[in-house]
Amino acid sequence: MDYPLRFVDQLRPHLKALRKKRGLTQAQAGALVGVSQARIAEIEANPGAVSLEQLAKLLSTLGATFFLREDTPSGGVLYAREEPSTTYEPLQDAAVNLPAGPWTTRQMSDGSVLVTLSPGETGAPAPQSTAPGTLLRQLQALNPGRNVKPNSRRSFVIRPKTGSW
């Protein structure tokens, strides 16, 4: 479905709705784009103050894109259009290696895997250290050949090293 945008302010509700439709928090969307949660909040609050490159990355992550459609001979109008579901190349081995602990994993639409250390779960041994730097180094050591990026203090995004963020 096409959503005509004649003013940048009209993009605000669309960005937030697309992110929520994909089931992503601002922090998760930021990790997939390669920016912080605070930057995603800034982009959603004021999409006119973001570079076109960052906006295009965010829209791609959310399954949307910009295109130009000529309405009149005098010029083009910027539109946002939701893209149909795309099949992304998943991690070659979707199972990621995790240190001991109560971890949860979630396969993302771009083929990356979101892993989160669940606090207070019983039945699984707690990791020896839950310091973010320690957990990051452990995940990087257990998943060679993959990019491991922190998403928050207890969650990380793991994706293949081939390709770019």
TrEMBL record:
Domain HTH cro/C1-type: 15-67
Short name of one Pfam family: HTH_3
Residues spanning the signal sequence: none
CDD domains, per database record: HTH_XRE
InterPro entries registered for this protein in UniProt: Cro/C1-type_HTH, Lambda_DNA-bd_dom_sf
TM region(s), chain numbering: none
Gene Ontology molecular function, alphabetical: DNA binding
Name of this chain's protein: Helix-turn-helix domain-containing protein
Organism from which the protein derives: Variovorax paradoxus
Lineage of producing organism: Bacteria, Pseudomonadati, Pseudomonadota, Betaproteobacteria, Burkholderiales
